[in-house]
Amino acid sequence: MARTKFVAGNWKMNTTRSAAVDLAKGVAAAAPSGVQVGIAPPFVYLDAVGQAIAGSNILLGAQDVYFEKPGAFTGEVAVEQLIDVGVKFVLTGHSERRHVIGEASDLISKKAHAVYTAGLILIHCVGEKLEERDANKTFDVVKLQLDELMPGVITDASRLVIAYEPVWAIGTGRTATDDQAQEVHAFIRKQLGERWSTAFASQVRIQYGGSMKPDNAKGLMSKPDVDGGLIGGAALKAESFLGICNAAR
Ligand code: PEP
Q1: Catalytic positions
Q2: CA of 71 to the centre of ligand 1 (A)
Q3: pLDDT tens string 165-179
Q4: What spacing in Å lies between the alpha carbon of 63 and ligand 1's midpoint?
Q5: pLDDT tens digits, 195-244
Q6: Residue from 223, 222, 213 nearest 249 by CA
Q7: CB 203 within 8 A of CB 155
């Protein structure tokens, strides 16, 4: 069965309440059919954005989560609380959380499994830094980041999404070429096949992320293993985000 392309916007620590609601409404008003579209606003605007997109097909997403059940974890947000405000997908392993905030693999792994076992869609981000690419370590790095996911726990391919985001392409305006992206996406799918099964791997969506824009989206997403995009900067304007969603059709 063909994989439905999935384009998700990661708003990071941007927007105000009113800007978030306007952006969400703009996306919901014109999102194309035939593509899964999602938006991940900052935690504080999840509820407002959820209301703004109510009744549309847009999926509400969260940029982070804590793995524990609700309780004494000051400042954290539990998956149950995300579900309570209508969240359908959660990002784990984003490079800003790995390399700026300093999240380690074991924490990322716990978060990923908490998201999946709660019944949500997991978007697990992987990707190499520039020095790792230059040292020919891209595949080794991606392999280790895929090790954060346990095949015994994650059994439904439709709720697992991998986002390949080369760190050197995030927010830099520098995009992987279509062939560079395809090469790593094919590697990821092969790895998933070895860990789960070829049938499972063939159903997992693998998004590309890293300075995807309306003008480069079509080329990237026309590659056989590129099943959508995780979009940062270009997701902050309805026009550019919708341009990418339309390119995914
Ligand atoms: C991201 O941070 O997930 C991302 C892809 O950012 P940008 O599109 O701005 O490179």
Answers
A1: 94, 165
A2: 32
A3: 999 999 898 899 999
A4: 12
A5: 999 999 999 999 999 999 999 999 999 999 999 999 999 999 999 999 99
A6: 222
A7: no
